[in-house]
Design a protein that fits this description.
190 residues, alpha+beta, Glucose Permease (Domain IIA), 2 domains, three-stranded antiparallel β-sheet, globular
């Protein structure tokens, strides 16, 4: 709210139209960078808000597209330890295209009780920065915050297919930390 005051009050003195435009812009930023509390769901949960864009059940692969209206704070899909967290600079093409794998990204590998899991968070054409909240060696609980991807983006998740089964389909809507996306197969541990 301090940002709103700093922008709107001086602008009000110059022009009411400018103050309305700046207030509108401030509200857009408040909406875009919101970080609501979430009740952690059952099973393996979604790392991001968004829409399932691709699923490969046999290989444990899931890709999620985050539109501008989605919350852009990502969360841990399960308990584990961060084995690797690498911020890689790259391009900024639309996150829903195949070329987005070359975009700026945060590559995360987690060690879990059921084997390694990896997540790649990709910035999009508008998203120019990923702000990580984690570091290598850190222990995460399911639902813990991992990062903020500014504006539209994509998150790809790879789970060990011999240990976990993805339960969502292309087009499903997901909420980070709440929506169950996979379950541990018989004999595994959640």
């Amino acid at each position: 709210m301090a940002f709103v005051s700093l922008c709107v009050i001086p602008a009000l003195l110059l022009s009411p139209y400018l103050s309305i435009a700046l207030a509108g812009l401030a509200l857009v930023f408040v909406f875009m960078f919101r970080d609501p509390n979430r009740d952690v769901g059952q099973g393996i949960v979604s790392p991001a808000d968004g829409t399932v864009r691709e699923v490969d059940h046999a290989n444990g692969y899931l890709s999620i597209y985050l539109a501008l209206r989605n919350v852009h704070v990502t969360r841990a899909p399960m308990d584990g330890t961060v084995k690797r967290a690498a911020h890689v600079m790259g391009r900024h093409v639309p996150a829903f295209t195949k070329k987005s794998v070359e975009n700026e990204r945060l590559e995360i590998t987690m060690g879990t009780k059921n084997g390694p899991a990896s997540m790649i968070e990709m910035a999009g054409i508008i998203a120019r920065r990923i702000v990580p909240y984690i570091e290598e060696g850190q222990t995460l609980r399911k639902g813990d915050r991992i990062s903020l991807i500014r504006f539209g983006s994509r998150v790809d998740l790879r789970l060990p297919p011999s240990e976990m089964s993805i339960t969502v389909r292309r087009g499903d809507k997901l909420r980070a930390g709440e929506t169950k996306i996979a379950e541990v197969l018989r004999g595994g541990m959640e």
